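Protein Record: Sequence and Backbone Structure Tokens
======================================================
Tokens: labelled as protein backbone structure tokens, with as many entries as the chain has residues.
Question of interest: how does this chain fold, as expressed in backbone structure tokens?

___
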Amino acid sequence: MAGQLQGKVVAVTGAGRGVGREIALLCAKEGANVVVNDLGASADGEGADLSPAQETVNDIIAAGGKAIVNGASVADPAGAATIIEDAVKTFGQIDAVVNNAGILRDRIWHKMSHEDWNAVIDVHLNGCFNVSKAATPYFRDQGSGSFIHFTSTSGLIGNFGQANYSAAKLGIVGLSQSIALDMARAGVRSNCIAPFAWSRLIATIPATNEAEAQRIERMKTMSADKIAPLVAFLASDASKEVTNQVFGVRKNEIFLFSKPRPIRSMHKSEGWTAQSIAEEFLPAVRGSFANPAERSGDVFGYDPI
């Protein structure tokens, strides 16, 4: 029986290891021809090694699938363009782009350098832009295509020591929403996934207390292969009606996230002053404030099944 992605061509960034590798393997199993992109850098973005990407390709071919290696950096616009060019040159088309590549340079806010900030923004946010921009002309010409971007609850909710990563990941949601709106008339869709999965990036996060150590142990039970089925679905024709959404995957759970919308309003016909805001507006809305100290681990504190 043909897979969900039979005849499709899918480009997966950061596909040499972890979540990206599992996505590439499943997409190939579902019938797609796959471009396996991975610079092969360390968790903080240093160095390069094509062997992880080649190993993923070798495994796909050994299982009877088709795949090629691309070792470009998504942070480089010219390099990102080669990912799409390689797909079209080798397989004749491009049908889905999975923006998964990422690095971490966690620092508490007052110690974060411009270098830490720029490196993470370049790979995550600019990388999504670069690869998506390169695929857009092909998607427009064929009147179809799927962008699948990886966000994070660190951006959607918040986390300690990740201002660069959180900003990039929430920026990706804004990018995806605008792409979905701009490209709808061309039959192109764009969605985000916030994954919960153990990876070498998660392994770099230090545990500073017992609660954080327990959270890391819970993360170890969340295997990367659990993320791949939702990606394969979003890359397939079965998801043609699905666009401009934010999903999450946590072991055997799939979430649909809400988006920021007004929850309370208050009108004052004569206008507001700083004093009237303090005396009237604040008491009226205080009960609806988001918890200022809440982070991802607090919202998802229960054990996954």
Remarks:
- The two ends are 30 Å apart (CA to CA).
